[in-house]
TrEMBL record:
<dbReference type="InterPro" id="IPR040234">
    <property type="entry name" value="QC/QCL"/>
</dbReference>
<dbReference type="GO" id="GO:0005576">
    <property type="term" value="C:extracellular region"/>
</dbReference>
<protein>
    <recommendedName>
        <fullName>Glutaminyl-peptide cyclotransferase</fullName>
        <ecNumber>2.3.2.5</ecNumber>
    </recommendedName>
</protein>
<dbReference type="InterPro" id="IPR007484">
    <property type="entry name" value="Peptidase_M28"/>
</dbReference>
<dbReference type="GO" id="GO:0008270">
    <property type="term" value="F:zinc ion binding"/>
</dbReference>
<feature type="domain" description="Peptidase M28">
    <location>
        <begin position="154"/>
        <end position="384"/>
    </location>
</feature>
<keyword id="KW-0964">Secreted</keyword>
<feature type="region of interest" description="Disordered">
    <location>
        <begin position="1"/>
        <end position="22"/>
    </location>
</feature>
<keyword id="KW-0012">Acyltransferase</keyword>
<keyword id="KW-1015">Disulfide bond</keyword>
<keyword id="KW-0812">Transmembrane</keyword>
<keyword id="KW-1133">Transmembrane helix</keyword>
<keyword id="KW-0862">Zinc</keyword>
<dbReference type="InterPro" id="IPR037457">
    <property type="entry name" value="M28_QC"/>
</dbReference>
<keyword id="KW-0472">Membrane</keyword>
<dbReference type="Pfam" id="PF04389">
    <property type="entry name" value="Peptidase_M28"/>
</dbReference>
<keyword id="KW-0479">Metal-binding</keyword>
Length: 393
Protein backbone atom coordinates (compact mmCIF):
# COMPACT_ATOMS: atom_id res chain seq x y z
CA UNK A 1 0.00 0.00 0.00
CA UNK A 2 2.80 2.41 0.73
CA UNK A 3 4.32 2.02 -2.78
CA UNK A 4 0.95 2.60 -4.43
CA UNK A 5 0.41 5.75 -2.42
CA UNK A 6 3.80 7.08 -3.44
CA UNK A 7 3.10 6.48 -7.14
CA UNK A 8 -0.25 8.16 -6.84
CA UNK A 9 1.46 11.25 -5.49
CA UNK A 10 4.04 11.33 -8.34
CA UNK A 11 1.53 11.50 -11.19
CA UNK A 12 3.16 14.05 -13.58
CA UNK A 13 1.57 17.36 -14.52
CA UNK A 14 0.81 18.27 -18.15
CA UNK A 15 3.21 20.50 -20.11
CA UNK A 16 0.93 23.50 -19.74
CA UNK A 17 1.38 23.22 -16.07
CA UNK A 18 -2.23 22.36 -15.39
CA UNK A 19 -3.07 19.13 -13.71
CA UNK A 20 -4.69 16.26 -15.64
CA UNK A 21 -8.45 16.50 -15.75
CA UNK A 22 -9.71 15.60 -12.33
CA UNK A 23 -11.77 12.69 -13.60
CA UNK A 24 -8.68 11.03 -15.24
CA UNK A 25 -6.55 11.79 -12.23
CA UNK A 26 -9.10 10.04 -10.05
CA UNK A 27 -9.78 7.12 -12.47
CA UNK A 28 -6.18 5.85 -12.79
CA UNK A 29 -5.69 5.11 -9.09
CA UNK A 30 -9.17 3.56 -8.91
CA UNK A 31 -8.28 1.16 -11.71
CA UNK A 32 -5.11 0.20 -9.86
CA UNK A 33 -6.95 -0.21 -6.59
CA UNK A 34 -9.54 -2.37 -8.31
CA UNK A 35 -6.77 -4.42 -9.94
CA UNK A 36 -5.03 -4.88 -6.59
CA UNK A 37 -8.31 -5.83 -4.94
CA UNK A 38 -8.89 -8.40 -7.68
CA UNK A 39 -5.39 -9.81 -7.09
CA UNK A 40 -6.09 -9.99 -3.34
CA UNK A 41 -9.34 -11.86 -3.98
CA UNK A 42 -7.54 -14.29 -6.30
CA UNK A 43 -4.74 -14.86 -3.75
CA UNK A 44 -7.32 -15.37 -0.98
CA UNK A 45 -9.22 -17.87 -3.15
CA UNK A 46 -5.95 -19.71 -3.88
CA UNK A 47 -5.05 -19.90 -0.16
CA UNK A 48 -8.59 -21.04 0.71
CA UNK A 49 -8.42 -23.74 -1.98
CA UNK A 50 -5.07 -24.99 -0.66
CA UNK A 51 -6.44 -25.05 2.91
CA UNK A 52 -9.53 -27.02 1.89
CA UNK A 53 -7.46 -29.54 -0.06
CA UNK A 54 -5.01 -30.02 2.84
CA UNK A 55 -7.99 -30.35 5.21
CA UNK A 56 -9.36 -33.18 3.05
CA UNK A 57 -6.05 -35.04 3.46
CA UNK A 58 -5.79 -34.52 7.19
CA UNK A 59 -5.13 -38.21 7.79
CA UNK A 60 -1.42 -37.51 7.28
CA UNK A 61 -1.27 -34.81 9.96
CA UNK A 62 -2.01 -34.63 13.67
CA UNK A 63 -5.71 -34.70 14.56
CA UNK A 64 -6.72 -32.51 17.49
CA UNK A 65 -8.75 -34.43 20.08
CA UNK A 66 -11.50 -31.84 19.85
CA UNK A 67 -11.88 -32.51 16.11
CA UNK A 68 -12.13 -36.27 16.52
CA UNK A 69 -14.78 -35.86 19.20
CA UNK A 70 -16.70 -33.27 17.20
CA UNK A 71 -16.51 -35.39 14.04
CA UNK A 72 -17.79 -38.55 15.75
CA UNK A 73 -20.69 -36.76 17.43
CA UNK A 74 -21.62 -35.07 14.15
CA UNK A 75 -21.30 -38.23 12.07
CA UNK A 76 -24.15 -38.50 9.57
CA UNK A 77 -25.12 -41.97 8.35
CA UNK A 78 -26.42 -42.52 4.85
CA UNK A 79 -29.95 -43.86 4.35
CA UNK A 80 -30.41 -47.07 2.40
CA UNK A 81 -33.16 -47.01 -0.22
CA UNK A 82 -35.55 -50.02 -0.30
CA UNK A 83 -33.51 -51.38 -3.24
CA UNK A 84 -30.26 -51.05 -1.28
CA UNK A 85 -31.88 -52.74 1.72
CA UNK A 86 -32.79 -55.68 -0.55
CA UNK A 87 -29.29 -55.78 -2.02
CA UNK A 88 -27.43 -55.79 1.33
CA UNK A 89 -29.86 -58.34 2.81
CA UNK A 90 -29.31 -60.63 -0.18
CA UNK A 91 -25.57 -60.62 0.44
CA UNK A 92 -25.99 -62.41 3.81
CA UNK A 93 -25.48 -66.16 3.42
CA UNK A 94 -26.90 -68.26 6.28
CA UNK A 95 -25.26 -71.48 5.08
CA UNK A 96 -21.83 -69.84 4.88
CA UNK A 97 -22.36 -68.32 8.34
CA UNK A 98 -23.20 -71.72 9.82
CA UNK A 99 -20.94 -74.12 7.93
CA UNK A 100 -17.88 -71.98 7.21
CA UNK A 101 -17.75 -69.50 10.06
CA UNK A 102 -19.57 -71.02 13.06
CA UNK A 103 -18.80 -74.78 13.07
CA UNK A 104 -15.01 -74.40 13.63
CA UNK A 105 -15.71 -72.09 16.63
CA UNK A 106 -18.08 -74.60 18.31
CA UNK A 107 -15.41 -76.18 20.49
CA UNK A 108 -13.92 -75.52 23.91
CA UNK A 109 -11.97 -72.21 23.76
CA UNK A 110 -10.46 -71.72 27.22
CA UNK A 111 -7.72 -69.04 27.25
CA UNK A 112 -4.21 -70.36 26.75
CA UNK A 113 -5.33 -73.77 25.40
CA UNK A 114 -5.03 -75.45 22.00
CA UNK A 115 -8.78 -74.92 21.38
CA UNK A 116 -8.32 -71.17 21.82
CA UNK A 117 -5.38 -71.16 19.40
CA UNK A 118 -7.32 -73.15 16.79
CA UNK A 119 -10.20 -70.65 16.89
CA UNK A 120 -7.75 -67.75 16.48
CA UNK A 121 -6.27 -69.50 13.45
CA UNK A 122 -9.78 -69.92 12.03
CA UNK A 123 -10.48 -66.18 12.44
CA UNK A 124 -7.15 -65.26 10.80
CA UNK A 125 -7.76 -67.64 7.95
CA UNK A 126 -11.28 -66.33 7.24
CA UNK A 127 -10.26 -62.66 7.39
CA UNK A 128 -7.08 -63.36 5.42
CA UNK A 129 -9.11 -64.88 2.56
CA UNK A 130 -11.05 -61.66 1.96
CA UNK A 131 -10.17 -59.19 -0.80
CA UNK A 132 -10.56 -56.10 1.42
CA UNK A 133 -7.07 -56.63 2.89
CA UNK A 134 -7.56 -56.59 6.65
CA UNK A 135 -4.58 -55.74 8.81
CA UNK A 136 -4.46 -58.46 11.47
CA UNK A 137 -2.84 -58.03 14.87
CA UNK A 138 -2.57 -59.96 18.13
CA UNK A 139 -2.65 -58.34 21.55
CA UNK A 140 -1.06 -61.07 23.67
CA UNK A 141 -0.29 -60.78 27.38
CA UNK A 142 0.08 -62.81 30.57
CA UNK A 143 -2.17 -62.13 33.55
CA UNK A 144 -2.59 -63.70 36.97
CA UNK A 145 -5.90 -65.57 37.41
CA UNK A 146 -7.38 -67.71 40.22
CA UNK A 147 -5.94 -70.67 38.24
CA UNK A 148 -2.42 -69.20 38.00
CA UNK A 149 -0.75 -67.20 35.21
CA UNK A 150 -2.54 -67.46 31.88
CA UNK A 151 -1.61 -66.17 28.42
CA UNK A 152 -4.48 -64.28 26.78
CA UNK A 153 -4.65 -63.17 23.15
CA UNK A 154 -7.05 -60.60 21.72
CA UNK A 155 -7.46 -60.78 17.93
CA UNK A 156 -7.63 -57.40 16.18
CA UNK A 157 -8.40 -56.58 12.56
CA UNK A 158 -8.46 -53.10 11.02
CA UNK A 159 -9.61 -52.35 7.50
CA UNK A 160 -7.60 -49.12 7.03
CA UNK A 161 -5.21 -48.44 9.93
CA UNK A 162 -4.47 -44.91 8.64
CA UNK A 163 -8.13 -43.78 8.77
CA UNK A 164 -8.90 -41.01 11.25
CA UNK A 165 -11.78 -42.79 13.00
CA UNK A 166 -13.07 -46.32 13.55
CA UNK A 167 -16.38 -48.06 14.00
CA UNK A 168 -15.51 -50.95 16.32
CA UNK A 169 -17.34 -54.27 16.14
CA UNK A 170 -16.54 -56.66 19.00
CA UNK A 171 -17.33 -59.99 20.65
CA UNK A 172 -15.45 -62.47 22.85
CA UNK A 173 -14.18 -65.78 21.51
CA UNK A 174 -13.18 -67.50 24.77
CA UNK A 175 -15.52 -70.04 26.38
CA UNK A 176 -16.22 -70.40 30.08
CA UNK A 177 -14.56 -73.18 32.08
CA UNK A 178 -17.16 -75.70 33.22
CA UNK A 179 -16.47 -78.78 35.31
CA UNK A 180 -17.71 -82.04 33.70
CA UNK A 181 -21.48 -82.48 34.21
CA UNK A 182 -22.63 -86.08 34.81
CA UNK A 183 -25.93 -85.22 33.10
CA UNK A 184 -23.98 -84.58 29.88
CA UNK A 185 -21.39 -87.38 29.74
CA UNK A 186 -18.48 -86.63 27.40
CA UNK A 187 -19.75 -83.12 26.65
CA UNK A 188 -17.95 -79.82 27.14
CA UNK A 189 -19.36 -76.31 27.43
CA UNK A 190 -19.42 -74.79 23.93
CA UNK A 191 -20.92 -71.38 24.65
CA UNK A 192 -22.75 -71.28 21.31
CA UNK A 193 -24.40 -67.95 22.08
CA UNK A 194 -21.57 -67.03 24.49
CA UNK A 195 -20.05 -66.05 22.09
CA UNK A 196 -19.41 -68.44 19.18
CA UNK A 197 -22.41 -67.19 17.18
CA UNK A 198 -21.54 -63.47 17.63
CA UNK A 199 -17.98 -64.23 16.39
CA UNK A 200 -19.39 -66.08 13.36
CA UNK A 201 -21.83 -63.20 12.74
CA UNK A 202 -18.96 -60.70 12.57
CA UNK A 203 -17.03 -62.98 10.19
CA UNK A 204 -20.11 -63.39 7.97
CA UNK A 205 -20.82 -59.63 8.00
CA UNK A 206 -17.38 -58.69 6.68
CA UNK A 207 -17.47 -61.59 4.21
CA UNK A 208 -20.90 -60.55 2.89
CA UNK A 209 -19.80 -56.90 2.58
CA UNK A 210 -16.30 -57.66 1.28
CA UNK A 211 -16.76 -55.87 -2.07
CA UNK A 212 -18.17 -52.71 -0.48
CA UNK A 213 -15.54 -52.72 2.31
CA UNK A 214 -12.77 -53.04 -0.31
CA UNK A 215 -14.19 -49.97 -2.05
CA UNK A 216 -14.39 -48.10 1.28
CA UNK A 217 -10.70 -48.81 1.87
CA UNK A 218 -9.78 -47.67 -1.67
CA UNK A 219 -11.63 -44.39 -1.04
CA UNK A 220 -9.52 -43.78 2.09
CA UNK A 221 -12.71 -42.92 3.98
CA UNK A 222 -12.43 -40.96 7.26
CA UNK A 223 -14.21 -43.76 9.19
CA UNK A 224 -13.06 -47.35 8.84
CA UNK A 225 -14.09 -50.64 10.46
CA UNK A 226 -12.19 -52.37 13.25
CA UNK A 227 -12.96 -55.86 14.56
CA UNK A 228 -12.02 -57.11 18.01
CA UNK A 229 -12.32 -60.72 19.16
CA UNK A 230 -11.66 -60.53 22.90
CA UNK A 231 -10.05 -63.29 24.91
CA UNK A 232 -10.77 -63.83 28.62
CA UNK A 233 -14.19 -62.25 28.97
CA UNK A 234 -15.34 -65.06 31.26
CA UNK A 235 -14.35 -65.38 34.93
CA UNK A 236 -12.25 -68.42 35.83
CA UNK A 237 -14.24 -68.70 39.07
CA UNK A 238 -16.81 -66.16 40.30
CA UNK A 239 -17.16 -62.86 38.40
CA UNK A 240 -15.19 -60.08 40.12
CA UNK A 241 -13.45 -56.92 38.93
CA UNK A 242 -10.15 -58.81 38.69
CA UNK A 243 -11.52 -62.21 37.59
CA UNK A 244 -13.31 -61.22 34.34
CA UNK A 245 -12.84 -59.04 31.25
CA UNK A 246 -9.10 -59.87 31.00
CA UNK A 247 -8.87 -59.05 27.29
CA UNK A 248 -10.99 -55.91 27.24
CA UNK A 249 -9.27 -54.46 30.31
CA UNK A 250 -5.89 -54.98 28.64
CA UNK A 251 -6.88 -53.67 25.20
CA UNK A 252 -8.64 -50.54 26.51
CA UNK A 253 -5.51 -49.65 28.48
CA UNK A 254 -3.27 -50.34 25.45
CA UNK A 255 -5.44 -48.23 23.13
CA UNK A 256 -5.55 -45.40 25.68
CA UNK A 257 -1.76 -45.08 25.50
CA UNK A 258 -1.30 -45.66 21.75
CA UNK A 259 -1.05 -42.34 19.88
CA UNK A 260 -3.32 -42.07 16.85
CA UNK A 261 -2.34 -41.09 14.27
CA UNK A 262 1.17 -42.39 15.07
CA UNK A 263 3.22 -39.66 16.73
CA UNK A 264 0.22 -37.62 17.88
CA UNK A 265 0.65 -35.94 21.24
CA UNK A 266 -3.08 -35.20 21.61
CA UNK A 267 -5.04 -38.22 20.53
CA UNK A 268 -5.00 -41.99 21.03
CA UNK A 269 -6.63 -45.01 19.46
CA UNK A 270 -9.44 -44.67 22.01
CA UNK A 271 -10.29 -41.17 20.75
CA UNK A 272 -10.49 -42.69 17.27
CA UNK A 273 -13.34 -45.05 18.25
CA UNK A 274 -16.58 -43.48 16.99
CA UNK A 275 -18.74 -46.22 18.43
CA UNK A 276 -18.02 -49.55 20.17
CA UNK A 277 -20.64 -52.11 19.09
CA UNK A 278 -20.56 -55.22 21.28
CA UNK A 279 -22.38 -58.46 20.38
CA UNK A 280 -22.99 -61.08 23.07
CA UNK A 281 -25.37 -63.95 23.92
CA UNK A 282 -26.92 -63.89 20.45
CA UNK A 283 -28.09 -66.99 18.59
CA UNK A 284 -31.28 -68.09 20.35
CA UNK A 285 -34.86 -67.33 19.28
CA UNK A 286 -36.75 -64.15 20.24
CA UNK A 287 -33.95 -61.93 21.59
CA UNK A 288 -35.08 -58.72 23.25
CA UNK A 289 -32.33 -56.14 22.83
CA UNK A 290 -32.82 -52.86 24.69
CA UNK A 291 -31.06 -49.52 24.58
CA UNK A 292 -28.50 -49.14 27.40
CA UNK A 293 -27.01 -45.68 26.78
CA UNK A 294 -28.63 -42.31 26.07
CA UNK A 295 -25.55 -40.95 24.29
CA UNK A 296 -25.82 -43.63 21.57
CA UNK A 297 -29.63 -43.75 21.37
CA UNK A 298 -29.59 -42.30 17.85
CA UNK A 299 -27.57 -45.33 16.69
CA UNK A 300 -29.99 -47.70 18.44
CA UNK A 301 -32.72 -45.90 16.46
CA UNK A 302 -30.93 -46.91 13.23
CA UNK A 303 -31.18 -50.59 14.29
CA UNK A 304 -34.91 -50.20 14.97
CA UNK A 305 -35.34 -48.51 11.58
CA UNK A 306 -33.38 -51.27 9.79
CA UNK A 307 -35.49 -53.98 11.45
CA UNK A 308 -38.72 -52.20 10.44
CA UNK A 309 -37.51 -51.59 6.89
CA UNK A 310 -36.48 -55.23 6.35
CA UNK A 311 -39.76 -56.46 7.91
CA UNK A 312 -41.81 -54.14 5.70
CA UNK A 313 -40.21 -55.66 2.59
CA UNK A 314 -40.80 -59.20 3.86
CA UNK A 315 -37.08 -59.90 4.10
CA UNK A 316 -37.10 -61.38 7.64
CA UNK A 317 -38.31 -64.89 8.46
CA UNK A 318 -39.94 -66.02 11.76
CA UNK A 319 -40.39 -62.32 12.50
CA UNK A 320 -43.91 -61.58 13.75
CA UNK A 321 -43.84 -57.78 14.01
CA UNK A 322 -41.81 -54.86 12.67
CA UNK A 323 -40.20 -54.35 16.06
CA UNK A 324 -39.53 -57.84 17.41
CA UNK A 325 -35.91 -57.47 18.60
CA UNK A 326 -34.85 -53.86 19.23
CA UNK A 327 -36.84 -51.94 21.87
CA UNK A 328 -36.20 -48.55 23.48
CA UNK A 329 -39.26 -48.49 25.74
CA UNK A 330 -38.16 -51.14 28.26
CA UNK A 331 -35.03 -51.64 30.36
CA UNK A 332 -33.87 -54.48 32.58
CA UNK A 333 -30.80 -52.87 34.16
CA UNK A 334 -27.09 -52.67 33.30
CA UNK A 335 -25.00 -55.63 32.16
CA UNK A 336 -21.30 -56.21 32.91
CA UNK A 337 -19.49 -57.12 29.70
CA UNK A 338 -16.44 -56.30 27.57
CA UNK A 339 -17.65 -52.75 26.97
CA UNK A 340 -17.14 -51.74 30.63
CA UNK A 341 -13.40 -50.80 30.46
CA UNK A 342 -14.12 -48.77 27.29
CA UNK A 343 -17.23 -47.17 28.77
CA UNK A 344 -15.21 -46.04 31.80
CA UNK A 345 -12.74 -44.39 29.42
CA UNK A 346 -15.49 -42.41 27.67
CA UNK A 347 -16.01 -44.51 24.52
CA UNK A 348 -19.60 -44.43 23.12
CA UNK A 349 -21.14 -47.92 23.44
CA UNK A 350 -23.88 -49.84 21.65
CA UNK A 351 -24.44 -53.10 23.60
CA UNK A 352 -26.31 -55.71 21.59
CA UNK A 353 -27.18 -58.37 24.15
CA UNK A 354 -30.58 -59.91 24.91
CA UNK A 355 -32.08 -59.05 28.30
CA UNK A 356 -33.32 -60.99 30.14
CA UNK A 357 -30.47 -63.39 29.30
CA UNK A 358 -31.47 -66.52 27.33
CA UNK A 359 -32.58 -69.48 29.51
CA UNK A 360 -29.53 -71.54 28.48
CA UNK A 361 -27.05 -68.87 29.62
CA UNK A 362 -24.04 -70.49 31.34
CA UNK A 363 -25.65 -73.90 31.03
CA UNK A 364 -24.33 -76.94 29.21
CA UNK A 365 -27.15 -76.66 26.69
CA UNK A 366 -25.88 -73.35 25.31
CA UNK A 367 -25.19 -75.46 22.23
CA UNK A 368 -25.93 -75.50 18.52
CA UNK A 369 -29.28 -77.25 19.10
CA UNK A 370 -30.59 -74.23 21.04
CA UNK A 371 -29.60 -71.75 18.33
CA UNK A 372 -32.20 -70.45 15.90
CA UNK A 373 -30.68 -69.88 12.42
CA UNK A 374 -33.55 -67.71 11.03
CA UNK A 375 -33.15 -65.27 13.96
CA UNK A 376 -29.38 -65.13 13.47
CA UNK A 377 -29.87 -64.45 9.76
CA UNK A 378 -32.37 -61.68 10.55
CA UNK A 379 -29.95 -60.04 12.98
CA UNK A 380 -27.21 -60.27 10.35
CA UNK A 381 -29.36 -58.46 7.80
CA UNK A 382 -30.16 -55.70 10.32
CA UNK A 383 -26.46 -55.31 11.15
CA UNK A 384 -25.50 -55.29 7.45
CA UNK A 385 -27.88 -52.33 6.89
CA UNK A 386 -26.52 -50.63 10.01
CA UNK A 387 -22.91 -50.97 8.81
CA UNK A 388 -23.80 -49.91 5.27
CA UNK A 389 -25.50 -46.76 6.57
CA UNK A 390 -22.87 -45.90 9.18
CA UNK A 391 -19.94 -46.35 6.80
CA UNK A 392 -21.77 -45.13 3.68
CA UNK A 393 -21.13 -48.37 1.75
ZN1 LIG B 1 -20.56 -65.98 29.47
Amino acid sequence: MSRTSKRYKSVPSTSNGSALPRCDQARMPRVRVLFICLCCVLIFALILGLYISSDANRSNGPIPAADLTKDKFNHKPSKCSPAQVRKFASQIDRKRLWETHLRPILRERIPGTAGSKAVRQHIYSQLGSLSAGWMLEEDSFVSPTPKGSVTFTNVLAVLDPSAQRRLLLACHYDSKIFPPDPRYPGKVFLGASDSAVPCAMILELVTALDVQLSALKQQRAAVTLQLVFFDGEEAFEDWTETDSLYGSRHLSELMARTPHPPGSTHTTLLHAVDLFVLLDLLGGPDPLIVNHFDNTARWFDRLIAAEKSLHKQGLLSSHPSGQSYFRKDIYFGPVQDDHIPFLHRGVPILHLIPTPFPPFWHKMDDSEEKMHPPTVENLMKILAIFLAEYLGL
